[in-house]
Amino acid sequence: MHNASTMQPITGAKASAQARPATHGGSWKAWIPALLALFAIPPLLAGNPFYVHLAVLICINIIFVNGLSLISRTGQLSFCHAAFMGMGAFAAVICSTRLHTPFAVSVLAGVGVATVAAWLLGAVILRLQGVYFVLVTFCFGELFRLVLLEGGDLTGGANGIANIPPASIFGVALDSKLSFYFLAAACAFASTVLLVALFKTPRGHSLDAVGDNPELAEASGIGIQGSQMFAFLLGSAMAGFAGALLAHYLGFVSPESFSQHVSVAAIIMLVIGGRGSVLGPILGALIMTPLPELFRSAIETQNILYGITLILVLKFLPMGLVGIAARLRGGKGGAR
Amino acid sequence: MDFTFLLGQALTNGLIIGLLYLLMAIGFTLVFGVMRVVNFAHGEFYMLGAFSAYVCVTKLQLPFLAAVLATFALTLVAGWVIEVVVLKGFRGDELNGMIATIGLAMILQNGALMVFGPDPQSMPAVAEGVVSLGPVMLPMSRLYVVAFSLAVLALLYGFLMHSRGGRALRAVVQDIEIANAQGIRSQFMYPLGFGIGVALAAVAGALMAPVFSVSPSIGSTPLLKAFIVVILGGLGSIPGAALAALLLGVFESVANTFMSSSFSDMLLFGFVILMLIFRPSGLLGKAGR
């Protein structure tokens, strides 16, 4: 009822940013080598396992936030993204530890469970919009955590599941941080390329169209439900994939690893990095993942800085840090 | 321990807790109604209210009534200032406003952690003794909560229904443009609505401080309950929130008597999700959006 009028400021800001991919479509050719170079840095720091550990977490977060960004570009902000990560993690771990399936099969099972759950949930909740979608996903995330806590033997209750066998591919065990990094980096890179490719297709444009102006999109013959469902499925599958990776990397899962705080952290990464651009999740994960690890001694100060940063970014850079680059380029373009 | 006794006790306790949820939810509804923003920092104002009452009573030796009044006044002013300084740019902006309140919640909660430390503090009870109504036993301290909550609700009703400011606030909630056209200064109504809303949460916190312990993390549960109440009651509907708050309190109290608390929570969330899907306008809301 109030959606139409109150969504205007957001869609307005988004629409202006959406003009970018069309005018700067070639810039991706420059970005991809830069991205590859970025992924190549951590192995050079292999002497310090802590940096490699951070790099693995950043890669997993990139996949996780990429999924959230896909959903958010169709105009829905999911507050239960961590629940799908948890489903992927727990399903994969249960396969690995009980059925002793190979790593790849477990990950596939995790992704499958997250996707099916997203399909079931999405079928009923995607017709809600704005605040109502936020509230229902928030409640679902809490419900999921309670189900994990009450899961008895299957989920290990509050203790979770420990002693998860390390990942292995083609018989090679990825039991060191560095070897797992190569897997995580390849997956993060692949998920980013997937999004870049998707948003170059008509399907991707239709997702942006639905996020920008649902009424107009529908009038142009784009199904809102279908587009949002597609994004919700693919985004949640990416979260499930990230969860399965994380569980096999850490060797431990518990309900608290997938609480609402994790969903909110993903939203913060996305907002600070930038919605409406494929670079946003990368920047967000890159900047926000290491901070809590580096400032463990001053966690309160650091959280306060987080909050202040979040508000300042919302106020002055509604398109996130990516918006700075866009603004600079926009300025140059104007001079031309 | 017969069945009717258990049920009677559970119903009474439920109504008391329900009154508290009501204070939380009305504040939340008021903020949403005026600003169209889901206030994720609402639970932190509950927490601040509890600490304010704790400091007033234990450090400044004020009587409890004065502590509650001081809490209300302080958070009203704080809410006003926060609205003008932080949230001004997000009025009516559902999505960004909501994310901004997440940032606000982080600042408030971690600020309290730095000032008060993570350990739970306990506050002396307001009153000793127990009153028995037939077979049902009521601790005096909880009766105080009931009396205070009812007084606050009556004052709020009087303000909203029978004062100039209250009428203006309701007009802004109903239709901001028409309200502006009628000469209502909405630039005062935004901070006023936010200030009163969060001050109600703070009063709820102050009232519960002597009953539960006080720590920087106590805000999250009341926030979740406020969410549930406003979903069940319908976003922006105060009568709906009143009905839903009392129902929620009674349901929780009765359910916790007869089943495990996490199972009753699961039932509740399941019900809330069904409610959002089939009747998003809430129990008393108008059908269709």
Stretches of chain B where pLDDT falls below 50 for ≥5 residues? none
Quaternary assembly: heterodimer
SS-derived structural category of chain B: mainly alpha
Question: Order of strands across the widest beta sheet of chain A?
Answer: 1-4
What best-fitting shape of chain B do the alpha-carbon axes yield?
A: globular
Name the chain pair with the biggest interface and residue counts per chain.
A-B, 45 and 42 residues
Q: Whole-Å distance between the termini of chain A? A: 43 Å
**What is the element string of chain A, with H for helices and E for strands?**
HHHHHHHEEEHHHHEHHHHH
Spatial sequence of strands, sheet with the most strands of chain B: 1-2
Largest sheet composition of chain A: 2 strands, antiparallel
- What's the helix count of chain A? 16
Strand content of chain B: under 5%
Query: Care to count the β-strands of chain B?
Result: 2
Give structural notes.
The complex is a heterodimer of chains A (336) and B (289). Chain A has 336 residues and is mainly α. Chain A has a domain at 45-260. Helices cover 75% and strands 2% of the residues of chain A. Chain A is built from 16 helices and four strands. A two-stranded antiparallel ribbon of chain A has the order 1-4. Chain A has a two-stranded antiparallel ribbon with strand order 2-3. In chain A, a hairpin with a 2-residue loop joins strand 2 (168-169) and strand 3 (172-173). By secondary structure, chain B is mainly α. Chain B has a domain at 20-218. In chain B, strands 1-2 form a two-stranded antiparallel sheet. The A-B interface holds A 1-3, 5-7, 9-10, 77, 124-125, 128, 130-132, 134-136, 138-140, 142-143, 146-147, 149-150, 264, 267-268, 271, 299-301, 303-304, 306-311, 314-315, 318 and B 32, 36, 38, 86, 89-90, 92-96, 98-100, 102-107, 109-111, 113-114, 224, 227-228, 231, 235, 262-263, 265-266, 269-270, 272-273, 276-277, 280, 289.
